[in-house]
Amino acid sequence: MAETLGNENPTGYDEDFLERVEEDYLCEICHLPLGDPLQAKCGHRFCKGCLEEHFRRLENDGQPSTCPVDRDVLDRDKPDVFADKAVERQILFFAVKCPCDDCQWTGELRNQRDHIGTCLKYPVTCPNSCGLSIPRELMLSHTRDECPHTMISCPYVMMGCETKKKVQLTLIDQQEDEDERENVIKLINPERSSAHFARPKEKENLACGFPKFITHEKLNSRKYLLNDSLLIQVEIQEPCK
């Protein structure tokens, strides 16, 4: 076996298959179920990406293209390597699980991408570009109540104001080393009718009743409170005119 076997960037299917995949369907390089399978004239099968990376390494070393298993020379200008469509179809019918631990979906590999596109447990990137990935089922509450980049309508929208206001509270961690600080950032709704401005119903609610801004336990776990003082930074857009 050639020393070139192995790939730092495997291109096979790293999925959770319901049943063990037989060796005939595994890439000879990355040892995962074949992704875009190719078959060499000698009968060995590889992921397209894995074999192309193998050929690039040989070319960079000034060596001819060979099979990484038996080192047979492969003429890439001739059909010494060809797409194995029959094997590809079989692999796409193998049953897999959803990549999300909390999701119970199982189905054929060919349908997994469609499932991921609607899976409520699958993490998706916040549309407000806040940098967080949130399970799809929690994204609505995140963008509505938590995301610091959410734009909130002015409370005078009923009077014709079209300005969007963004109000953000940042509780400053007063650690001396700025790199060690863990500031708490929360978004608030400026409408006076909002529950965010109601009297706290639980002792855990601080910051004018904003729910779950910070617990007493966390408040005392770091230097948010220093010399009986809290530092809270408020960011707000220009008031509407």
UniProtKB/TrEMBL annotation:
GO terms for cellular component: cytoplasm. The keyword Membrane does not apply. Residues 27-71 form the RING-type domain. Gene3D superfamilies: Apoptosis, Tumor Necrosis Factor Receptor Associated Protein 2, Chain A (2.60.210.10), Zinc/RING finger domain, C3HC4 (zinc finger) (3.30.40.10). A zinc finger (TRAF-type) spans 115-161. Keywords: Cytoplasm, Metal-binding, Receptor, Repeat, Zinc, Zinc-finger. Residues 115-161 form the TRAF-type domain. PROSITE patterns: ZF_RING_1 (PS00518), ZF_RING_2 (PS50089), ZF_TRAF (PS50145). It is found in: Cytoplasm. GO terms for molecular function: zinc ion binding. InterPro entries: MATH/TRAF_dom, TRAF-like, Znf_C3HC4_RING-type, Znf_RING, Znf_RING/FYVE/PHD, Znf_RING_CS, Znf_TRAF. Its main location: cytoplasm. One of its GO terms (biological process) is regulation of canonical NF-kappaB signal transduction. Pfam families: MATH_2, zf-C3HC4. This is TNF receptor-associated factor 6-B.
